[in-house]
Design a protein that fits this description.
Layout lengths: L1 H24 L18 E3 L3 E2 L9 E7 L12 E8 L8 E6 L3 E5 H10 L8 E10 L7 E2 L3 E5 L8 E3 L3 E3 L8 E7 L10 E9 L8 E7 L3 E5 H10 L7 E12 L4 E3 L3 E6 L7 E2 L23 E2 L9 E8 L4 E2 L1 E3 L6 E4 L6 E2 L6 E2 L4 E8 L4 E6 L3 E3 L19 E4 L2 E7 L7 E3 L16 E3 L9 E2 L13 E7 L7 E6 L4 E4 L19 E4 L2 E8 L4 E5 L8 E4 L11 E4 L6 E2 L5 E8 L4 E4 L1
Parallel strand pairs: 2-9, 11-18
Antiparallel strand pairs: 1-3, 3-6, 4-5, 4-7, 7-8, 7-9, 10-12, 12-15, 13-14, 13-16, 16-17, 16-18, 19-23, 20-21, 21-27, 22-26, 23-24, 24-25, 27-28, 29-32, 30-31, 31-35, 32-33, 33-34, 35-36, 37-40, 38-39, 39-44, 40-41, 40-43, 41-42, 42-45, 44-45
Length: 600
């Protein structure tokens, strides 16, 4: 009994000691951290397991998801939920998500769901399945719980653009081909879809239902496309509306997502008054690289033929004046591709666009090549140009033109000649020794003229040039077809030619001073000569007058200082000629017909 009493007294003493300690600690007491209960995984449910919205449901809730409270020990208004959606069986490796805070439910509109399904690469109007689950957490993403997985059958719907046209009727002309004609615009396709949508404008003949539409590329995320008159004309011609006629073309917009879903807009109609377009022809062949005309047998770099603009042969007959080396072979391509290319046919002088033979020349020379894509005929003959008319020494007598009154063959579609016009009576330029016979055939003569002045456009078999009634009567004439869209002529006085520069070692000649510079002697056929003392390694050029502003020639040879060789010249502006490396007396020959100069 005594032993039990001792134990009891000891226990009371210990309790008293702890009580005394607690009283002291309370003077600076800190509350212990709260202890929260763990949450539980939410249970996810859906308003339906089959969802097939239509375009009319775009802004309506088509499926609602709800879930049980995960019962975190925190204000439920800040609970965070992430709804994950992916293709069935993909284990949410490419999930699309929607975040919800503080609520136990969320809905997807038709477009919300559609955007998700398109982002998953689902086919339009095709039922497929998705997996859906929910992840809950605190607002800081701690203590995440995953729900059950729902499987839903879903069907994405067509969500096309709405296409409008600025004009429902347009009238087109060749003269205004580069001007704006019509603008198509549209709304976004697949509204809400987060990926890239690429647009293409399609067109076809009215009533053809786009069985074989032609496409005009637009690009990604672009909502408008403007077309020029030329481009609208192409849609008309490609839709079977002949040039110069009126017809209706249908247009629609194709939209394609990054994952390949395709949808088409409504159709709009445009009535088009078309025009006859320009068809362009080129001369690819084996001669190109060796003559500086691009790459051999390469339509994209081949020289272009001139279109004969006369009624009856417009867009049918084409020709070119060009130098060809011996044995050159070539074809004529329609456009800068081999899609349509003309070669020799079975009958003499005929052409075919179906695997024809190569055209060819035996000897090197300057040629005139003519083809007619409608009559399927061709002609190859010497390429030349000369002066004829009452105001020339030859008179109106084509057989007497060549070679005495011929111009020089300076380059492709370029002739330069000097002629003395001794009297009135009109004159022309002519490319054959007989007059045009009115046939408009490929082998006919072409003569050129215009009553308008220097720099004017030439007409085939057009009016006479105006008479030269003022001094000097010797003039330089340039037939220039390098711009195949505008064959024109230039004329300037050719009474004199001077050597100008700082490379002349002659008393009384000032550097770069035309009035004191020595004159060359004209010997005929476009040739000027002079014997002159030159300084070494200096500069010279040629001026056709005693003041700056007159017609002049510069170097086109890369400033070669070689002696005894022909160097190319140019008049459009360039470097000066370099004098030889050794000073001395030299003979300079300037040949305007061949567009060369030589220092001997």
């Amino acid at each position: 009994m005594k032993h039990i009493l001792k134990i009891f007294l000891a226990a009371v003493t210990v309790v008293g000691l702890f009580t005394a300690c607690n009283k002291i600690d309370n003077l600076k007491k800190v509350d212990a951290l709260p202890v929260y209960q763990l949450g539980v995984s939410p249970v996810l449910s859906a308003s339906g397991t089959t969802v097939a919205p239509t375009l009319a449901d775009s802004n309506k809730a088509v499926v609602t998801f709800s879930w049980t409270n995960p019962r975190y020990a925190q204000d439920s208004a800040v609970y965070k939920y992430i709804l994950e959606i992916d293709s069935t069986g993909k284990n949410f490796a490419n999930e699309n998500t929607k975040t919800v805070v503080g609520l136990l439910t969320t809905s997807l509109t038709g477009r919300d769901l559609n955007a998700i399904l398109l982002n998953l690469g689902f086919k339009l109007n095709t039922a497929q399945s998705i997996d859906v689950r929910l992840i809950s957490s605190y607002s800081n993403n701690n203590e995440r719980y995953m729900s059950n997985v729902l499987k839903l059958t879903v069907t994405p719907f067509m969500d096309p653009s709405t296409l409008v046209t600025a004009n429902t009727s347009v009238t087109l002309t060749l003269a205004n081909a580069a001007l704006a004609s019509n603008t198509f615009s549209w709304t976004n396709a697949f509204t809400g879809y987060p990926g890239i949508v690429t647009y293409t404008l399609q067109y076809d003949s009215a009533g053809k239902n786009f069985v074989a539409p032609i496409e005009i590329a637009v690009g990604p995320s672009i909502l408008t496309k403007g077309l020029t008159q030329g481009e609208m004309n192409a849609t008309a011609l490609n839709s079977g509306i002949p040039g110069g006629n009126t017809g209706k073309v249908e247009y629609r917009l194709k939209a394609v997502t990054a994952l390949g879903a395709i949808v088409f807009s409504n159709v709009v109609n445009v009535t088009i008054q078309s025009y006859v377009p320009i068809v362009r022809m080129y001369l690819p062949g084996s001669y190109q690289a060796s003559t500086g005309n691009g790459n051999d047998w390469d339509p994209p770099t081949a020289p272009e033929l001139i279109r004969d603009l006369r009624a009856g042969v417009f867009n049918d007959m084409y020709y070119i004046y060009i130098y060809l080396p011996a044995g050159a072979q070539f074809k004529v391509s329609e456009g800068r591709s081999w899609n349509i290319a003309y070669g020799t046919g079975a009958a003499p002088g005929s052409i075919t666009s179906n695997n024809g033979g190569n055209f060819s020349v035996t000897n090197a020379g300057f040629y005139r090549i003519t083809v007619n894509r409608t009559t399927l005929k061709y002609d190859i003959r010497e390429g030349r140009m000369g002066f004829v008319g009452g105001a020339t020494a030859v008179g109106w007598n084509p057989p007497g033109v060549f070679p005495t009154y011929a111009m020089g063959t300076a380059a492709t579609n370029l002739f330069v000649g000097i002629n003395t016009f001794p009297s009135n009576g009109g004159w022309k330029l002519i490319d054959n020794n007989a007059w045009d016979n009115g046939s408009k055939a490929v082998d006919e003569t072409r003569s050129y003229g215009t009553p308008n002045g220097d720099g004017s456009t030439l007409e085939v078999n057009g009016a006479n040039f105006a008479d030269i009634t003022t001094s000097p009567v010797r003039n330089r004439v340039i037939w220039d077809g390098r711009d195949v869209n505008n064959v024109k002529y230039f004329m300037s006085p050719a009474a004199e030619m001077r050597v100008v520069g700082d490379g002349i070692n002659q008393a009384g000649v000032n550097d770069w001073d035309p009035p004191t510079s020595p004159q060359m002697t004209y010997t005929g056929n476009g040739v000027w000569t002079i014997s002159i003392t030159l300084k070494a390694n200096k500069d010279i050029k040629f001026v056709a007058g005693n003041a700056w502003g007159a017609f002049d020639y510069e170097d086109n040879s890369g400033q070669s200082q070689a002696v005894g060789t022909n160097k190319k010249i140019k008049w459009e502006g360039g470097d000066n000629f370099k004098t030889p490396a050794t000073a001395g007396t030299y003979t300079i020959t300037l040949n305007e017909n061949t567009q060369t100069m030589r220092i001997n």
